[in-house]
Amino acid sequence: MTVLRFAAVFNCRIDEHLAVALHAGSGQLAVVDPARLRDELMLMLAGDGILPVLMEYADVLVPLIPEVEAVVGFDQHSRWHCYDIWEHTARALAASERTDPLVRLALLFHDLGKPASFSLGSDGEGHFYGHARLGALIAKRRLGELCFDRRVVDAVVELILMHLDILYPKDAGRWMARLGSVQLQRLIKVKQGDAYAHSELAAKRRLQELEDFQAALEGID
């Protein structure tokens, strides 16, 4: 994990021989102190070079988060998605606000419930009913295993549960009262990152909705 952290933070390529060793030895992470893995994971997620690390070393994360294995290469069969689940996750995370670790942590887990909730409609469109709830359950379990603080776990779980909710400008006051300023801004940033990793048409529409909501928030006394 330390090597991946350095690659993400310093935005550099990992030596070919070292890369082979990382893939081959990833299973050894299962015996590493969970608190150390937690700290390395959080530092890695904050790096500007996180996208290539996630794309090339998803298998190294599997000992920490087994559900990652199922989403790599998973075709979403959706006109709104131009990437498989893992690439969508990686791109959403990389496009998100890097200064708030809970935002990136929520995006890492937000779609991990999709494989278990997948169904294919008669029109060939993929559906993932209930995936936010499943993703939240996965996050709660895995973050607990990695010794995250309970307040962090609860905040991340809440963000995952709400990442599909539509933020209507008329409801800005209600959302502020419900979540408070800090958590609401996190939710907006999670949704922004998620939107950037959709197809171009879907991204444009969703980002505009978030801009409208943010403008409504600024109008609240």
Structure explained in plain terms:
This protein is mainly alpha-helical. Helix content is 63%, strand content 3%. The longest helix has 25 residues. The model has no long low-confidence stretch (mean pLDDT 95).
* Low-pLDDT regions: none
Order of helices and strands: HHHHHHHHHEEHHHH
Shape: globular
Which structural class best describes the helix and strand composition? mainly alpha
The helical percent reads 55-70%
What is Rg? 18 Å
The main sheet orders its strands as: 1-2
Beta-strand share of residues? under 5%
**How many β-strand runs?**
2
Residue-averaged pLDDT: 95
Largest sheet: 2 strands, antiparallel
How far is the N terminus from the C terminus?
45 Å
What is the number of helices? 13
Helices, strands, pairings?
Elements: H1 2-9, H2 16-24, H3 34-45, H4 50-56, H5 58-61, H6 68-71, H7 85-94, H8 101-109, H9 114-117, E1 118-120, E2 126-128, H10 131-145, H11 150-162, H12 172-196, H13 200-218
Key terms:
mainly alpha, 221 residues, 13 helices
